[in-house]
Write a structure and sequence with these properties.
The chain has one domain: Urease accessory protein UreF. It contains 11 helices and no strands. The longest helix is centred in the C-terminal third of the chain and has 24 residues.
């Protein structure tokens, strides 16, 4: 196991690996509603792609996934399996569509299988559970002793980079446009993460109507590049 402790200031290099698009969990095959948003003309330029991606991060992910991820990290630190599974179930029940719920479950299963193949015992402890991707990411981050606030920012970056990659293929955008969206996301991720850290239980939740509609439409879209 990594020797880095929670109080260390060393940058957690394991986090770069977990947030990398090269992590073999199938994230590249999903667009989380973005493909349908492009199909319906909501996203058709760099500006509208930035608005969609940043808006999803700030007004959906930061209000639901992020605070529940932090609670799952805290539960793992306290060795509280029940609290961990409650937060995971809360997240799964809050998904906007069947497609997003399936994406979350399949990516969570893939990451758990990877962790199990790497002989990480915590993965086997939850092997009989259906976990969301943030839950599996929390298990990995806890194993490698990544500070929760850093782990959250890594998870948010991975989500944002995945959406930018999809937008580059779908809109389509050039690589420079994609980099501008990512650069602009840095301060937003920091601000959104700080907001998530302050949320109480009764403040967790989001109403992402456009995302729900787009992801539901994508389930039945006739021609698509991304999985539904």
């Amino acid at each position: 196991m990594d020797t880095q402790g929670p109080g260390d200031t060393t940058f957690p290099l394991h986090l770069l690996r977990l947030a990398s698009p090269g992590l073999p969990v199938g994230g590249f095959s999903y667009s989380r509603g973005l493909e349908a948003a492009v199909r319906h003309g909501w996203v058709n330029s760099e500006a509208s792609a930035r608005e969609w991606i940043h808006g999803t991060l700030e007004h959906a992910f930061a209000l639901l996934d992020a605070p529940l991820f932090l609670r799952m990290m805290a539960a793992l630190a306290a060795d509280d399996r029940d609290a961990f599974l409650r937060s995971n179930a809360w997240l799964a029940a809050s998904r906007e569509s069947r497609e997003i719920q399936a994406e979350d479950r399949l990516m969570g299963d893939a990451l758990l299988r990877l962790l199990s193949s790497l002989e990480i015992g915590a993965a086997n402890r939850f092997g009989d559970c259906t976990l969301s991707y943030p839950a599996a990411f929390a298990i990995a981050a806890h194993h490698w002793r990544i500070v929760p606030r850093q782990a959250l920012r890594g998870l948010m970056w991975a989500m944002t980079e995945g959406q930018v990659s999809a937008a580059i293929r779908l809109v389509p955008l050039g690589q420079t446009s994609g980099q501008r969206i990512l650069i602009d996301a840095v301060d937003l991720i920091e601000r959104s993460a700080r907001q998530a850290e302050r949320l109480g239980d009764d403040e967790i939740g989001n109403t992402a109507i456009g995302l729900a509609m787009a992801s539901a439409w994508h389930e039945e879209q006739y021609s698509r590049l991304f999985r539904s």
